[in-house]
Amino acid sequence: MGGSPSCEDARVTPADSALVRAARGLPVAHAPVWFMRQAGRSLPEYRAVREGVAMLESCRRPELVTEITLQPVRRHDVDAAIFFSDIVVPLQAVGVDLDIVPGVGPVVARPIRSRADLAQLRDLTAEDVPDITESVRAIVAELGARPLIGFAGAPFTLASYLVEGGPSKNHEHTKALMHGDPELWSDLCAQLAQISGAFLRIQVEAGASAIQLFDSWVGALPRRDYTRFVMEHSAAVLSGVADLDVPRIHFGVGTGELLDLMGAAGADVVGVDYRVSLTDALARLGGSYAVQGNLDPALLFAPWPVIEARVREIVEEGRAAPGHIVNLGHGVLPATDPDVLTRVVALVHEISAR
Ligand code: 1CP
Prior knowledge:
The two termini are 24 Å apart. Helices cover 46% and strands 11% of the residues. The chain has a 7-stranded parallel sheet. Strands 2-3 form a two-stranded antiparallel ribbon. Residues 1-9 have low confidence and may be disordered. The chain has a single domain, classed as Alpha-Beta Barrel (TIM Barrel). The chain is built from 15 helices and 9 strands. The relative contact order is 0.14. It is of the alpha/beta class and 354 residues long. The structure holds coproporphyrinogen I (1CP). Coproporphyrinogen I (1CP) binds at residues 36-41, 55, 82, 84, 86-87, 100, 102, 105-106, 151, 167, 214, 216, 331.
């Protein structure tokens, strides 16, 4: 075999990338790093291209989705792109009347609280979202060896928006339905699992190299409710894409008490928010999974020496894991200075190099 640089380059594919290798627990040249919500309001170039275009509309225009997905890759040199979309895009695609209201989030016209309301949902197919396939293909062609992460919302988190009718602090209607009508709850989550699973499959079949299942709000549940009402549905989503042979990342906020269950649901990588140290998370996970995380997004507003010290700790703690993907403990806050994110990427690459 020749050792010319061009031969080396030709062998590099997303499947050999640091992100995919770390997710599989394989050795890496440096720790991979990306940021949840890396595409978005922290970037002036994002605000410029979104000017006058509604959020959900921007998610359905392939040239805009491609541009926005690539912006943080160009700027920060992150090790992965995440598909620019939203967890409610597939719900709208099957006909749910909803909108993403600026400053609020997803708002559903007719919340789902009775069996009759379930008629708003049906199975998702690739024909419902040809633009998603087109967008993913265009992004992957631009990314070269860098992986694209596809994503979907997990059944609980999607159900929370549908049952509450919008963002919720306490998830009271969701919990009332879950406990008050377990059969309807189960049917709702089974339908959402089909939709999420199909949305992930469409992205992977178009070229995404990893997936992340966002169960952002499931940390609101105690373990017994997670095992009784939620886990089987998230497991159905994750096992439904197992044949695609891409690593599966499973993330939620405030899920310190659920980490082992979220791994057992069928993840390769468990996302850890900033409330639990990686060291504690690894102990709770029993060494069975790679981990992703977990810098507090609010710490990015602190002086650089504080950020640097914390990043060094996180990279150090991650060395004990089977694999470590560096990320924030939740999404980039809109007022974050993007130059700080660029600096964090360079620091992670430097200190984790082997
Ligand atoms: O106009 C705007 O810029 C609106 C802000 C915005 C953005 C940039 C929303 C509304 N969604 C998005 C994009 C988005 N949503 C991405 C893009 C890719 C990236 O990370 O760079 C992703 C992965 C999501 C997924 C998403 N949407 C989640 C899971 C991730 C998380 O943050 O926990 C959730 C919970 C949503 C719902 C949602 N959509 C938008 C908002 C503001 C919210 C949260 C509302 C709430 O607080 O409940």
